[in-house]
């Protein structure tokens, strides 16, 4: 049994650093810079959680409950929901890193936490791609847009996006596993137990599927949409809302900046099956690129507020309405004696309530 654990741990040490690095036998001099990188990553994770939870909650509240349901608000609502669900699970990963990559939450939360992270990545980029396509069709093909751009059609698209994101993120539920060694439990991708060739194939396939469907194809789609939009808008002199276009473009650029390093390091990580030459670079780069990728989950609501004047106007109007209602309630409340006295003098607040 001990030989089996040692073999598994050796495999684990030499493969798949991402989100699960643990090397108790490293020299202290080599380990110190890595610990500094991990603490920087930890600070970024906490920043993402502190900013992302209230930011996405505000977007969900207003787009889901306060504003009129439109195709556009449904896109941004689901984008915020994807980020919000991921952020709810982020404290698990924060504690994992803080405890020197010791996973104390059990096997099923190990699987669920990784699945939610993959689901968020795919759902976010797919909704950004849908928003770009929707913007292109709306401006360049208004007849088609007017005929098919309805709430029912958008709900079908949203359902398909969530199903596809769940399907692509599903392997995390199967391959994610826990391993206990020297009273230390890690949560890692168990692509194999004994067959290294099979593990190599699975690692390559899932990494390239994640890169192609979660990054390259959506990025090319969004780029083509915006390039065609720019050329055709100039050619036809179409009047567009520049603020809205800048908002969408900023959200797409934020995704590009945040996720590009993550995917590059994920592909680079495949080299560890053949050589350990870049291990230290990967051990430093992957946690930082992962933290940068997580940062995208709190950037979208900030971009809405900073760039979109329409969002600002709606947000301010909604907040003003809430404050007005709150102040009205306060002004119409008081002690029992005050209420009795007001009732005798026919307080207009009570009269309005009675009506």
UniProtKB/TrEMBL annotation:
GO terms for cellular component: nucleoplasm; plasma membrane. Residues 55-304 form the G-protein coupled receptors family 1 profile domain. InterPro entries: CML2, Formyl_rcpt-rel, GPCR_Rhodpsn, GPCR_Rhodpsn_7TM. The chain crosses the membrane at residues 36-62, 74-94, 114-133, 154-175, 211-232, 244-264, 284-307. PROSITE patterns: G_PROTEIN_RECEP_F1_1, G_PROTEIN_RECEP_F1_2. It is a multi-pass membrane protein. Gene3D superfamilies: Rhodopsin 7-helix transmembrane proteins. One of its GO terms (biological process) is inflammatory response. Its main location: membrane. It holds the Pfam family 7tm_1. The keyword Ion transport does not apply. It comes from the Eukaryota. It is found in: Cell membrane. Keywords: Cell membrane, Disulfide bond, G-protein coupled receptor, Glycoprotein, Membrane, Receptor, Transducer, Transmembrane, Transmembrane helix. Coiled coil: none annotated. GO terms for molecular function: adipokinetic hormone binding; adipokinetic hormone receptor activity; complement receptor activity; G protein-coupled receptor activity. Belongs to the G-protein coupled receptor 1 family. PANTHER family: CHEMOKINE-LIKE RECEPTOR 1, CHEMOTACTIC RECEPTOR. This is Chemerin-like receptor 2. The gene is CMKLR2.
